[in-house]
Amino acid sequence: MTETHATITPGAPVFPPGRYGRRREPDRRRPRLAALLAAVLLATLGLIAAKLYQQYGDPRYDAQVITYTEITDSQVVIDFRVTVPAGGSTTCVLRARASDGAEVGHEEVTVTARPGERRIDARHRLATSARPFIGEVVRCRPAG
């Protein structure tokens, strides 16, 4: 004959007292530990990303197109402004695109700031293979 208790749901196993040891309560520390480890991992990855950006990124070379004018079938004139370290120089990649998005002109231009200045206002005539729709500064990096 087996012993049944009123608190046990039907179909649940009944273990004889003392035979299998004490039942463990669910551990509530593990979700906290997992959250703590995830937070430490995210903080570590954030620090690594910040260090790599400082080491390899070029945040000091910021370029903006002021205007693009004199659009013909074979050229576009691009006026742009670049922020560089004081008295520094930069090489910028200029590009012209047609109305369908195809690249019709591409050139690297090196510009230098006057001693003590950080902003360079430059103008460049970019030759194109077809009529451009827009002139752009793709990126700027340290000259060299």
List keywords for this structure.
single chain; 144 residues; alpha+beta; Immunoglobulin-like; 3-stranded antiparallel sheet; 1 helix; 38% strand; elongated; DUF4307
Architecture overview:
- By secondary structure, the chain is α+β, with helices and mostly antiparallel strands.
- 19% of the residues lie in helices and 38% in strands.
- It has one helix at 29-56; strands at residues 62-69, 75-83, 89-97, 103-112, 119-127, 134-142.
- The strands form 2 sheets. Strands 1-2-5 form a 3-stranded antiparallel β-sheet, with no helix packed on it.
- A hairpin with a 5-residue loop joins β3 (89-97) and β4.
| Integer-rounded radius of gyration | 33 Å
**CATH class placement of the domain at 62-142:** Mainly Beta
CATH fold descriptor of the domain at 62-142: Immunoglobulin-like
Sheet with the most strands: spatial strand order: 1-2-5
Keywords: Membrane, Transmembrane, Transmembrane helix
Transmembrane segments: 33-53
Protein name: DUF4307 domain-containing protein
InterPro entries: DUF4307 (IPR025443)
SSE layout:
Elements: H1 29-56, E1 62-69, E2 75-83, E3 89-97, E4 103-112, E5 119-127, E6 134-142
Antiparallel strand pairs: 1-2, 2-5, 3-4, 3-6
Give the gist of this structure.
This protein is α+β, with helices and mostly antiparallel strands.
